[in-house]
Each structure stands twice: as structure tokens, then as C-alpha cells.
Design brief:
The relative contact order is 0.14. The protein has a single domain, classed as 6 Propeller (Neuraminidase), CATH 2.120.10. Strands 1-2-3-4 form a four-stranded antiparallel sheet, with no helix packed on it. The chain has a four-stranded antiparallel sheet with strand order 5-6-7-8, with no helix packed on it. Strands 9-10-11 form a three-stranded antiparallel sheet, with no helix packed on it. By secondary structure, it is mainly β. The radius of gyration is 16 Å and the shape is globular. A hairpin with a 5-residue loop joins strand 1 and strand 2. Helix content is 0%, strand content 40%.
Length: 152
């Protein structure tokens, strides 16, 4: 991080990792990014989503196969869609997952969804999350899921 007024630089992550796809949280208090131990294209299943406080501190990994992600408008959740088995290199992209800034375990919001999911985006009200899903060979649709499952 570079402080614009002084030019002072401060490193937020450490170790032998590769970081990209950096995204500020909406409240600017945290930064999320894709992180890999090698950076090699063939090691895609080793990628995770890392989160670090903008003020510094330890990086926390979400614990899922990292993929493009989106912060919820209130900055409390991160959504992504990816595979679920790090040993499988060809698998259906699991429907949308989410993790809170402080939550440790990802949550599958669409367990019954039977299509591949990709490119999550939050509705401004932050009650629903949308994602692209291809149906058939050429048609596409946008599916929406509630942010939290209702308990019965």
C-alpha cells in the first residue's frame, strides 16, 4: 500500500505467495485478493481468496478454490463460484459460495443449482447475489440467490 500524501510504502502480505485480482472492501477497511503459493497456471486449484485488514495484520484465507469474486455492498460478504475439490482439475463450477470477512467457513448458497456458476455480482440491496450461468450451447441466463438460507 502506498500513502499518496507521503509516498510511504507499506507491505500488507508476506511470504512466498503470488497475489492478484486485488479488491478493496466497500468500506475500505479490508482488501481481498486471489493468492497462490506458486503463481503457476497449472496450480489453479491451489489458489485461494485472501483477506487482509487495510491497517495490516495477518492474512486470512477463505479456504476455497479461488476464483473471481465480489464484495457485498456492505462489505460483510464475499461471493465467488468455483470448483470444490482441489484434487479435480476438470469439474463443474460449484454454484455460488460466500464467506464473511470474519467467517472461517464458506457457505454454499445454491446446493440444488444444477448448472455451472460464474462471475458473481451483488444486488445493491445486498439481499441477493447474481451470477452468470450458461444454459445449453449458446444461451445464457442470470441466476439470483438469496444472501442467506432460511432455516425451517
Amino acid at each position: 500500500m502506498v500513502e499518496l500524501s507521503t509516498g510511504k510504502k507499506r507491505r500488507l502480505t508476506s511470504g512466498d505467495t503470488y497475489v492478484w485480482n486485488v479488491r478493496w472492501s466497500p468500506d475500505s477497511r479490508a482488501i481481498a485478493f486471489l493468492v497462490s503459493p506458486t503463481g503457476w497456471v497449472d496450480d489453479g486449484n491451489l489458489v485461494d481468496i485472501g483477506i487482509v485488514s487495510a491497517s495490516g495484520g495477518a492474512m486470512r484465507k477463505v479456504g476455497a478454490i479461488g476464483a473471481p469474486f465480489a464484495w457485498s455492498p456492505d462489505g460483510k460478504w464475499i461471493a465467488w463460484a468455483s470448483g470444490s475439490d482441489r484434487t479435480q482439475y476438470v469439474e463443474k463450477s460449484r454454484p455460488l459460495g460466500r464467506a464473511g470477512r470474519r467467517a472461517v467457513r464458506p457457505v454454499d448458497l445454491t446446493a440444488g443449482f444444477d448448472e455451472d456458476a460464474d462471475t458473481p455480482s451483488w444486488v445493491p440491496s445486498r439481499t441477493r447475489c447474481c451470477f452468470h450461468s450458461a444454459a445449453g450451447r449458446s444461451s445464457t441466463l442470470l441466476a439470483a440467490v438469496p444472501r442467506a438460507r432460511r432455516r425451517r
